[in-house]
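Q: For a teaching session next week I want to show students how multiple molecules come together into a single three-dimensional assembly. I've collected the sequence lines for a complex. Could you give me the predicted structure tokens for the whole thing so I can convert them for display?
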Amino acid sequence: MDKIIVHGGRALAGTVKISGSKNSALPILAATLLTKEPCVIHRVPDLSDVHYMLQILNHLGAEVERASGVVTVKAEKVSTVAPYDVVRKMRASVCVLGPLLGREKEATVSLPGGCVIGDRPIDLHLRGFESLGTAVRVHAGDIKVFAPRLRGASISLKGKFGSTVLGTDNVMMAAVLADGVTVIQDAASEPEVVDLANFLNKMGAKIEGAGSSRIVIEGVPELHSAEHEVIPDRIEAGTFLIAGAIAGKEVTITRVNSQHLTAITNALESSGYEISGNNGSLTIQPNGTLKPLNLRTEPYPGFPTDMQAQMCALLATAQGESAVTENIFPQRFMHISELKRMGAAIELDGATAKICGVDGLSGAPVMASDLRASAALVLAGLKAEGMTEINRVYHIDRGYELIDEKLGGLGAHIERVKV
Ligand code: EPU
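A: Of course. Below is the structure for the complete assembly, covering every listed component.
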């Protein structure tokens, strides 16, 4: 199990290229199961989650080829069974359910297990499938879905914590091959949902309204081959903006869509950073004192839950008291106790982290608990005095392509140690 060691206190400067989005690439790769013809996906990041998804496609019978960021998938014939052994490593494997149901009208996929960031049910996905005329059974750890035929329907995907991103993806992927028109109300409007809808439309689907809370899908008899480039990863981009904020002189991120980053750049500007740039790149510079913030995570276009941990790391050294409330995954605070080990003064009050800014952090051995928590610890390590040793970094490799090399390129003193 690798660990990452960060020697803090180096000022970062330079330019870093942002990779394709993990959370777009995963459902888009799953969507290639909807056609017998080959699909070519560009800018697929080299991450362990992507690797797991390709293993699942392979297990389901697809031919998969990968060469430097370009993945070709040809699913001429598919099996409809994805057992525990192939899906257990990644919750996002649940998004093969929609395309298998759409194409074969049946699927058996092992139920995803627990997750450190919270309960993560899939009741909304299943409710959506049922509205399309699907019978759903949960038996012996598997979800079995079966529909003699899929019928378009009006479906609301509103849950206790808002809509659902992968649930919207799943229902959309099943509905593209349903008879008639499906209307998804309370749909997730994240850019990754729009990216998937754009790819499906290239395959011959008829989807309108993606990016709003009402998506209309007119079913078609079949889909065909398509070529697509995945959008930039807005969470990787935001994480590197915070790296620039926490330890930078001047850091530029390139190959980004700055419109997707508005909530993050607004928050950073409110806390005293200067951000400039055009649509394809952004530069962050310190501009005086780091001010505290009151932040709430919300569905897009609000501040993303996937940036909450990194923001807590930044605000740990702001001058004054910040409050960060987690509205999407109220238990997503595993990073707090680790940040406290580095000298942060943070108390949890329900789903709110109350952060009292300290003058500095000190390096310490810490444990990564999930993907974004690990990123927060790396960021804190860049700021801290001395050495921060981050264990269980396989979490970070799930979602950040070459993070140690990219930070090293900006001047960070960071090393990966094989244990
Ligand atoms: N929820 C339900 N029922 C459902 C589905 C979701 O109650 O059937 C609840 C969840 O428990 C949560 C809220 O709805 O409270 C939102 O969850 P959502 O379904 O939107 O999450 P997801 O689709 O499973 C994706 C990303 C997550 C990201 C969330 C929220 C992928 C592969 N994952 O998960 O990304 O945090 O949307 O934006 O796209 C990450 O990259 O680190 C990550 C966790």
